[in-house]
Write a structure and sequence with these properties.
By secondary structure, this protein is α+β, with helices and mostly antiparallel strands. The protein has two domains: 9-53, no CATH class; 62-107. The chain has helices at residues 53-61, 63-76, 84-103, and strands spanning 11-16, 22-27, 33-37, 41-43, 49-51. A hairpin with a 5-residue loop joins strand 1 (11-16) and strand 2. The two termini are 27 Å apart.
C-alpha cells in the first residue's frame, strides 16, 4: 500500500524560514517542510506562559511511524501464517518504537 501522505521518516526542528524568522517545523527526509507549528501558549502549573510546540512537533513527526504500525496490524490481523504470539510481539515492538519517537524518547 502506498500511503496517501508524504513518506516518512519525518523530523522536527526550530528552523529559519525564508523571511529570516524562526519557527518550529516538521519536515520530510529531503528537508521539505510539512508544517509550521503555531506559537500557541498556555499557562503551566507555575502560572507561567509556555508552549507545547516541541511536544506537538514530535507527535506530528511520528505520524508516519504510527501509521506504519496501524497498517502492519491491519494487514496481518487475519494472517494465518503469523502466530498470535508473534503478532503480539511484533506489534508491541513497533508500537513502542513509534510511541517513543512521539514522546521524544527515541534516539
Amino acid at each position: 500500500m502506498t500511503a496517501p501522505w508524504t513518506p516518512g521518516p519525518w523530523s522536527h526542528a526550530h528552523r529559519m524560514k525564508a523571511n529570516g524568522m524562526y519557527s518550529t517545523q516538521v519536515f520530510d527526509a529531503d528537508g521539505q517542510t510539512i508544517c509550521h507549528l503555531a506559537w500557541h501558549t498556555r499557562t503551566n502549573s507555575e502560572g507561567r506562559a509556555c508552549t507545547d510546540r516541541e511536544e506537538n512537533a514530535r507527535f506530528i513527526a511520528a505520524a508516519p511511524d504510527l501509521a506504519e504500525v496501524a497498517i502492519w496490524a491491519d494487514r496481518n490481523a487475519d494472517n494465518q501464517e503469523i502466530s498470535h504470539e508473534d503478532f503480539r510481539v511484533e506489534i508491541t515492538i513497533m508500537l513502542r518504537a513509534a510511541l517513543a519517537k512521539a514522546k521524544g524518547e527515541a534516539a
